[in-house]
TrEMBL record:
Pfam families: ADH_N, ADH_zinc_N
Keyword flag NAD: yes
Protein name, per record: Alcohol dehydrogenase superfamily
Keywords: Metal-binding, NAD, Oxidoreductase, Zinc
Organism whose genome encodes this protein: Cinnamomum micranthum f. kanehirae
Subunit-structure text: Homodimer.
Protein family according to the UniProt entry: Belongs to the zinc-containing alcohol dehydrogenase family. Class-III subfamily.
One cellular component (GO) term of this entry: cytosol
Keyword Amino-acid biosynthesis assigned: no
């Protein structure tokens, strides 16, 4: 796959599903209730609205947040098409869309960027006022572009990538070079970029500094790589799995701590043991395990330590060690690692294209959309890191 023309002709001309008044009938993995097995269903995907783009997905991947949406009944958006990591080719665009055309390779994001609101102009955050994270499961006008047997389907965020086709507002899309490896594009669409951005954009890791990373999944390894590229001299990874520590070392990690190896000390104490008793300059909580939040906070230096919370935590409320916080430390939450889709994501894509970022080692499993429920089983396996979801056309993986 070396050019957008090749992708466009191959996918748009030879594999187009049935049409009916610009409605596409295609397959999607539909979630009908919390924790229920997903069902591969025929759904209808409408034509894009004026500011929207309809995309044929080339491949997707599985993120921890997808699992949370699937398991937890507090979402209450059913039926829903899950998935928010992916890459696709533009099938059609609305009449007001000028930056994308049929055949473009695009990456969906769940964060928008208008470049005009107060937050976007500040360049200090990626929380756009005009294009916020869509938690309603609907488009900006309160409707959905997906349906099943006449019933409305919800989108996960602004995405819904576990479907052969989806529709998104153009402001939640970023163009990618047509030669980018599709699995790499999936990882960059959320997980890896979230970790990479947390070190780069949120913490602004300084040269010669020290870093602790709690959890060496796709997000945590993104933190490790960014910290190494930014010049951190001590990068401590924390994970239960030794093989993840090995992957971290290959990306620039200097020290590895397995929580099970020493039960006499807390993780924050063990991190201080390898930092001359002071702790680290920056810590990153990437696991979503609530009790590790305070360990991450306490592992940083008194007076100036910074902790970035990245992992999606099951609980909506978590107790914080007030004394640790009052000792001059900073605790900061982060979405998508502070990465602004239009201003910052192209830089990460460029690093992927010029081989500064080697992402092949992060992909451990692949499934086809028809076998999506197997991905949930694989996610629990000790050797699983990132799962790529294919759409039957295996030659594109």
């Amino acid at each position: 796959m070396n050019s957008s023309g090749e992708v466009g002709s191959l996918l748009l001309d030879t594999t187009m599903p049935k049409r009916n008044s610009q409605v596409i009938t295609c397959k999607a993995a539909v979630c009908w209730g919390a924790g229920e097995a997903l069902k591969i269903e025929e759904i209808q995907v409408e034509a894009p609205g004026p500011s929207e783009v309809r995309i044929k997905l080339l491949c997707s991947s599985v993120c921890h947040t997808d699992i949370l949406y699937w398991k937890r009944d507090y979402v209450q958006l059913f039926p829903i098409v899950l998935g928010h990591e992916g890459v696709g080719v533009v099938e059609s665009v609305g009449e007001l869309v000028t930056e994308f055309k049929q055949g473009d390779i695009v990456i969906p994001t769940y964060v928008g960027e208008c470049k005009e609101c107060e937050n976007c102009r500040s360049e200090k955050t990626n929380f756009c006022h005009k294009y916020p994270i869509q938690l309603t499961g609907l488009m900006a006008d309160g409707t959905s572009r997906m349906s099943i047997r006449g019933q409305r389907l919800y989108h996960m965020f602004s995405c819904a990538t576990w479907s052969e086709f989806t529709v998104m507002n153009a402001n939640y899309l970023v163009k990618a070079h047509p030669s980018i490896p599709l699995p790499h594009a999936c990882l960059i669409s959320c997980g890896f970029s979230t970790g990479f951005g947390a070190a780069w954009k949120e913490a602004d890791v300084q040269k010669g500094s020290s870093v602790a990373v709690f959890g060496l999944g796709g997000v945590g390894l993104g933190v490790v790589k960014a910290a190494e590229m930014l010049g951190a001299t001590k990068i401590i990874g924390v994970d239960l799995k030794e093989w993840r520590g090995e992957k971290g070392m290959s990306l620039g990690m200097t020290d590895f701590i397995n929580p099970t190896e020493d039960n006499t000390k807390s993780l924050s104490e063990r991190i201080k043991d390898v930092t001359e008793g002071l702790g680290v300059d920056y810590s990153f909580e990437c696991t979503g395990v609530s009790h590790l939040l305070n360990q991450a906070l306490e592992s940083t230096k008194v007076g100036r330590g910074v902790t970035i919370v990245i992992g999606a935590i099951n609980e909506l409320s978590v107790p914080i060690n007030f004394l640790a916080l009052m000792a001059g430390r900073t605790l900061r939450g982060s979405i998508f690692g502070g990465v602004r889709p239009r201003s910052d994501l192209p830089s990460i894509l460029a690093k992927c294209m010029n081989k500064e970022l080697q992402l092949d080692a992060l992909v451990t499993h692949q499934v086809q959309l028809d076998d999506i429920n197997h991905a949930f089983e694989l996610q629990e396996q000790p050797d699983c890191l990132k799962i790529i979801v294919g759409f039957d056309d295996k030659k594109h993986l």
